[in-house]
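Chapter summary example.
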Amino acid sequence: MNSAGTGLRWGTLNQGWIVTLNDHEGLDASFMANRRGAHAVLDGIRATLLSSGLTGVSHDAAVVMMGYSAGSSPTTLAAELKSAYAPELNIIGTAVGGLLPNLQSVVNNLMPADWTLLAAIWGLASEYPTLSRLMQGSLSRNITRKKQFEEFQPMCSGQLSSTLGHEKITSYFHSMEFLNSPDVQEIFSNNSLGQDVPTMPMFIYESTHDEASPTVDTDNLVSWYCKEGAGIHYRMQTQESHRSLTLTGTLQALAWSKERFDGLVMPEGCQNSTYYFASTDFDSLAFLGETAIGAIERQLDIDLPSLII
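The structure predicted for these 309 residues follows.
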């Protein structure tokens, strides 16, 4: 975890909250295997609530879930599956941003693709043997390219990014048609959002020109949630990128989460709002604390107070 991410966690600890960081990908790094990730998120909460001897947490403590980008998918799906899979949990809110609701859309958006798609294919293949078999059968017949592909597999995201950059990963396959097979389409569908309707309040924040996933997919998901009676504050930012919203949006999500823990009741139904930027203020910076602010500023080489809107 980088120092900016660590700083954000310090901020939550400064509030006296118990923080659970969930390894939703598991031992096989099943990136984008969101259904197993959602179960892992809910099981992780269960494990935390059983830790009263160590943490002093109450077995029925109130919980808020948070996630961004690839972390938003298992978190949102956990919110969808909570009623059926973990009805006993007292989850009072879910704050997510940078959603990737439809895996097929994400794949189409990334083609001819960079390292991100490669990581997604590997992650899903580690969870689904059928996809692994189809992927292996579609690799380049060039022995050198095939060997290079295998060397990339154990790399983490940072190393993949620096090694591959914007190289087209299609060059490692003789065909990408395996992604359109019925079996793979079913895998995409089972790991996309929209399986059920969350029953807890939600804060969803997005960039109107998110480069990772078409914003219309999130618009459609939120519209369906709201039609089915969900309670959502959907906040759009017109001048933020997927990357910049990682920080500024998370500050908003933390403030929203604090309101839920403080007992503030969110208005019923759905509210949509649009801003140029994700607004921050001195209260949100104080929420993080000086140590966290310093860590974030060093990581991103910025002066946070200058970003206040």
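To summarize the output: The domain at 104-189 is CATH 1.10.260.130 (434 Repressor (Amino-terminal Domain)).
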